[in-house]
Amino acid sequence: MGKRSSWALPYLIFMVLFVVLPLLLIAVYAFQNGMGGFTFSNLTAFFTEPKIVNSFLVSLEVALENTMICVLLGYPVAYILADKSLNRSAVTVVLFILPMWINALMRTMATAEIFHTLGIQLGKGTLLFGMAYDYLPFMIYPIYNVLDKMDKSYAEAAQDLGAKPLQVFMKVTLPLSMPGIISGVLMVFMPTVSTFAVSEILTNNTIMLFGSVIQEQFYNMMWNQGAALALVMLIIIGFTTLLPGKESGIEEGGLI
Fold first, then answer.
1. What is the separation, in whole angstroms, between the first and last Cα of the chain?
2. CA 137, CA 90: separation in Å to the nearest integer?
3. Model confidence, pTM
């Protein structure tokens, strides 16, 4: 126990028990049938069963739309929060954190109750509204952190060279803030595409997302197919995290 590496042993045990082992169990169940024999039928169901395919396509559509909404709403907010001339109070930043102090499920149920009170029919519109409300802070803060730490000398140099405000934003600020946008997109897209409780509450089960299908498999004791679909979801999410590549800064030659 005298070595520093020994202090990492509890964390290693935790990761093996609660991360590695559950993932291995998912993989094992995914390739087994009800009798414990090896099979690919659970995975092929992802491509052959219309209900599963349709729910996955709907999930992708909703996730892309929600991500786009969060980008369009979140970037201007992050830009205002990071601009000291537009936002001079740190309290404003805290206001966007306050909703995250409440459990997401409670916020979703409260949102659904508001729609019921106003007489608004639950559907895709209410689903996108609730998801944007839940995940918008996850888009704002990565972008805000990048903009807040950005070297302002780049924008000043562009202005000295005669660039107009729009040109400064498009050729300097926006490219330099791309790492924050990419981080925000991943933080919004991945949980959206795999959610199930939010869609069930805000659509009254009229729209079934891919996460709801997985939850339904486990609820009906179809462990093997549920594990296979969960494995597919893990692979897709893992693949999306590799798409952005390195989050290295934009080369200076591409700024102006």
1. 55
2. 16
3. 0.84
- The structure tokens listed for 40 are 């690919």
pLDDT tens profile 63-84 = 999 999 999 999 999 999 998 8
Measured distance CA(95)–CA(222) in Å, rounded? 43
- The torsion region of residue 3 among left (phi > 0), alpha (psi -120 to 50) and beta comes to beta
Question: Which token pair is 105?
Answer: 């499920």
Residue type, 108: T
Q: Which ranges constitute the DSSP H helices of 169-209?
A: 174-176, 178-194, 197-203
Rg for the chain, CA atoms, rounded: 22
Q: How far apart are CA 93 and CA 218, in angstroms?
A: 40
Residues 89, 42: Cα–Cα separation, whole Å: 54
Beta bridge partners of 32: 38
Alpha helices per DSSP H over 8-123: 9-15, 21-30, 41-48, 50-82, 91-95, 104-118
